[in-house]
From TrEMBL:
Protein name listed in UniProt: C-type cytochrome
Pfam families reported in the protein's UniProt record: Cytochrom_C, Cytochrome_CBB3
PANTHER family listed in its UniProt record: CYTOCHROME C-553-LIKE (PTHR37823:SF1)
UniProt cross-references to InterPro entries, sorted A to Z: Cyt_c-like_dom, Cyt_c-like_dom_sf, Cytochrome_c550/c551-like
Organism: Ramlibacter alkalitolerans
Keywords, alphabetical: Electron transport, Heme, Iron, Metal-binding, Transport
Lineage: Bacteria, Pseudomonadati, Pseudomonadota, Betaproteobacteria, Burkholderiales
Domain Cytochrome c intervals: 43-127, 169-278
Family annotation (PROSITE patterns): CYTC (PS51007)
Amino acid sequence: MNKKQARLFAIGSTALAALAFLGLTIDSHRQFGKLTNADRITADVSRGQDVWHENNCINCHTLFGEGAYYAPDLTKITKLRGEAYLTAYMKDPSKFYDENKHRRLMPKQNISEPDIKALISFLDWVSNVDTQGWPPRPILVTGASFPGTAGGGGGGAPPGARPVSGAEDPIALGESLFRSAQPACVACHSVAPGVNMAGPSLAGVSARAEQLLASGSYKGAAKDVAGYIRESIMQPSAHVVPGPMYSTNGTSFMPATYGTSLTPVQIDQLVAYLSSLK
């Protein structure tokens, strides 16, 4: 290739690259409204964005992979934590931490209740933006796991669980649901003894349920262990575990949506798995 050919090749390839870049840019802008659910940007969402900036949340947290990477990426936080939990957390984060154990604490921002509600609306809008897999490896909240990913903070065979084998084993299928339901149970619960996250550890939940049913302090309607676990999934506020980390005013922070998001067969499988945690 002589100098003239090399020059023409450079000019041509640059022009083609520029055209491809321009085309992709135009196509991206064409899809932004749909990808970002622009029609769902309400006054609350806009106010929540202002609250996010006014409190310098990005100095510690990240959205869409952009931020300080000092604290968890919050792009999908409302897929992992419910509104009741997030509201109580933002009112007083210290209730969710042991300063001597965790050291790195979120400061109390003294955000008003309307602004907390707006901020959650903003984060919920963010969580529904189609990021097409970005960021590829966000810093997640403790134990978080998204459907289709490897297990999170509840990994490994739980102590006391019956060995499972075969794709049709209800316990094996229930364990898979524990990691892949929306939101994933493993995002809030560990199956390791003593590892309490947003929800209490479920290690030995079957034995504890049996003791609770016999204690006289149980307030729900279940008659046996399987019924108690089913009730905890379908109606988490029927009997709440004491403590500010898990409930407020008698209402559990656990989402009450599994009765509609999971089929009866899936509920049976999840109950079978949790019942195996002796």
